[in-house]
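REQUEST FORM: STRUCTURE PREDICTION
Request ID: SP-0412
Submitted by: Lab K.M.
Chain count: 1
Length (residues): 170
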Amino acid sequence: MNYAIGDKNYTDTMDPKDLKSFYDGMRSGDTPKTSQVTPYQFTEFWTPLLEKKQPIIHIALGSGISGTWANAVSAADMLMQDHPDADIRVIDSTLASVGYGMLAILAADLRDCGSSADECQMQLEKVKSNINTLLYDRRPDLPLPQRQSQPHRHGHSPRIEHLADTQSRP
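STATUS: Completed
RESULT:
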């Protein structure tokens, strides 16, 4: 994921030191702004995996709140032209925040237990519909009485500032 703090641009490398620095900055008042991963970035990241003949299961941030899913699908289509035998699966999580993370953890657990790409995709598609992420829209540009106080379930919610609750539906 790409993000900017002030005038400086960063790419999340999943390095624990970077993560600590990122959150230390937020605690001291930095406001990061994210941008979606481009199709080019996806192809650069996935190509070494394809060369090793590894299946790719990408769980994208919900398409209702980000264009990242569409960029991943575009990258997969481009790569399939050069690697017709590749196994690339792009899953629209329909989620954000904790719910999105839950799918990633489940995917890693399934991989570690030896599940096939088919089994993993099927389980993720099944489980994602049972994750309910409640997001509250606190729009600071509106006077307090006009601010929305109703939760948004999935889909686009502009200027989401706070994840209120995440729970599984019965």
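NOTES: The longest strand covers residues 162-168.
Reviewed by: T.R.
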